[in-house]
Amino acid sequence: MKKLPVKTSIIISSMTHLKNRDYFKLFINHTNEKKVTLIKLIEIIKPNKSKSFLDCGCGSGEYTIPLSNLFGKTIAFDVIDKITENLNGKINVKFVKSSLEDIKLVDKFDVILLSHVIFHTDETKWISILKKLLKSLSPDGKIIIITHAIGSEWIEFMKEFCHKVSLRCPEGGKRIKDMLEKLKLNYKLHEIETKITSKSVDSMYNLCAFFFADKKNEYFKLEKEVKDYLERFKKNNELVIQGKQSIFEIDNKPEHK
Fold first, then answer.
1. How many CA atoms lie within 13 A of 87 on its CB side?
2. Which residues pair with 240 in a beta bridge?
3. Residue 224 within any structural domain of the chain
4. Which range of residues forms the domain containing residue 123?
5. Maximal CA-CA distance, the chain
6. What is the mean pLDDT of each run of 10 residues along the chain (257 residues)?
7. Residue 210 lies in a domain
8. For residue 136, what is the domain's CATH number?
9. Backbone angles phi, psi at 151, to 5 degrees
10. Rounded to two decimals, what is the model's pTM?
11. Which of 35, 47, 54, 124 could form a disulfide with 70 if both were Cys (CB 3.0 to 4.6 A apart)?
12. Which residues contact 99 (CB under 8 A, 6 or more apart)?
């Protein structure tokens, strides 16, 4: 008798095989961060089709693509091209492969966005980077810098484990504020509440791996310790970690006295 093929299933006990993009998608599916931040950005920008937009460190285009609908021209850059496949023929978006330090800017822009990107650069270069962007800002334009704010449950989690894998904690609102005041720039600070949700400790442990970048292997070695820490976020039938975003709205005028 001919044997029938046996169907097999694979149980994934570890997620260390995933690519960074897969971890990012996992995180996006469990947070409202992009949605609430996008709503706030649209409110800050005050849509006007005649404006031009520069997205620094655009990633896959989570902000670039929807915000480009508010502008006549959009330029986005990153060190890796992850956005082109998501453009779907949009002709008003131009992608440039470059880093924040090396980007060469000729045009003037009405809005320049840096979302969670400045912390991927050497902090000693922050001032020179900001000065370069200010030169490319139109007279009535604004630079928007987004980072994690201090004092949230998410930052406390990151502070607990970042140093254990030799990773700089992504919190930096105070350091950006200090830089802006040192340069005597006029700015407004907006803070918005966000959250990360998951049905289980295992799921939350896996999706949090996204933030440990190239230190994921070291992060996974802390599995028991991380999962024990995550137990505190259980609320009813799910886990909820509260986050907070700092959005710095910087204009091209001297600081108001």
1. 18
2. 197
3. no
4. 20-150+169-197+243-252
5. 90
6. 39 49 84 95 81 94 94 94 87 93 94 92 92 93 93 92 88 85 94 96 93 90 97 94 95 61
7. no
8. 3.40.50.150
9. 90, 5
10. 0.87
11. 47
12. 79, 121
